[in-house]
Specification:
The protein has about 240 residues and is mostly helical. The chain has one domain: Transmembrane di-heme cytochromes, Chain C (Fumarate Reductase Cytochrome B subunit, Up-down Bundle), CATH 1.20.950.20. The protein contains eight helices and three strands, in the order ββααααααααβ. It has a three-stranded antiparallel β-sheet with strand order 1-2-3. Strand 1 and strand 2 form a beta hairpin. Helix 4 packs antiparallel against helix 7. The longest helix has about 35 residues. The radius of gyration is 21 Å and the shape is elongated. It starts with 11 loop residues before the first strand and ends in an 8-residue tail after the last strand.
């Protein structure tokens, strides 16, 4: 049986090379979804900025060198990547119910008294009122809430993207499903929301990389490598969710 075939158990390797026990935290589907979303956001950001304000383009007037041809290619890449991005979101939603305890939606919300204590103590840590962060193998409670908000932003970005796609490509089923949005919110405001969400994702990515690097260096728990290998060094007691 493969390592990813047992999603609900807390499995340990005996020790890592430093002598500390390791825990299999991030299953293969979670890692695939994570990197799919990362690459999708990179492609969507570059192509989206180009669609907003083209910053390169061939000078020729006709054929593959025509600016209209470039626009079509960039838009196709943007829309195709958007579809992959939406598929990754559905994959993460499914694995929040089918995955292990660290991928579960219960790990993202402070439902138990101990999780709420950890949330309070984590806030105190970031406010410089506690010397060390409460130990946690998966997401700490504050990060869990941040991810809930982030995925809410992802869902809104996907929704506004589908509305914009239905506007420029009035084909079934998109026009029939999404045309009502323009009567609720003007299309230019939908486009603005879609654009502003992109800058939020960029800001979150910068903070996420900084925080993951800081935690990896400070706690020496394999924070960065875990999203490639799935394993983290166990520095906490058994989580109670």
């Amino acid at each position: 049986m493969s390592a990813d075939a047992v999603p609900r158990t807390r499995r340990h390797r005996p020790v890592d090379r430093t002598g500390s026990p390791s825990v299999y935290v991030w299953e293969l589907p979670i890692r695939i979804v994570h990197w799919t979303i990362v690459l999708s956001i990179v492609v969507l950001t570059v192509t989206g900025l180009w669609l907003y304000d083209p910053f390169f383009g061939p000078p020729a007037r006709f054929g593959p060198g025509h600016p209209g041809f470039t626009l079509g290619v960039i838009r196709f890449i943007h829309e195709l990547t958007g579809g992959i991005f939406i598929a990754a979101l559905f994959g993460r939603l499914y694995w929040a119910h089918a995955g292990n305890r660290y991928a579960s939606w219960r790990a993202l919300l402070p439902l138990t008294p101990r999780q709420r204590w950890r949330l309070r103590e984590t806030v105190r840590y970031y406010a410089f009122r506690r010397r060390e962060a409460p130990p946690s193998v998966g997401h700490n409670p504050l990060a869990g809430l941040a991810y809930v908000g982030l995925y809410g932003g992802f869902a809104l970005s996907a929704f506004t993207g589908l509305a914009l796609f239905a506007w420029v490509a009035p084909t079934w089923p998109f026009r029939g499903l999404m045309s009502w949005t323009w009567t609720v919110v003007p299309i230019q405001n939908i486009r603005l929301i879609h654009l502003l969400l992109m800058f939020w994702f960029i800001a979150f990515a910068v903070h996420h990389i900084y925080s993951a690097t800081l935690i990896d260096l400070e706690e020496q728990n394999g924070e960065l490598s875990s999203m490639i290998t799935g394993w983290k060094i166990d520095t906490s007691e058994e989580d109670d969710f």
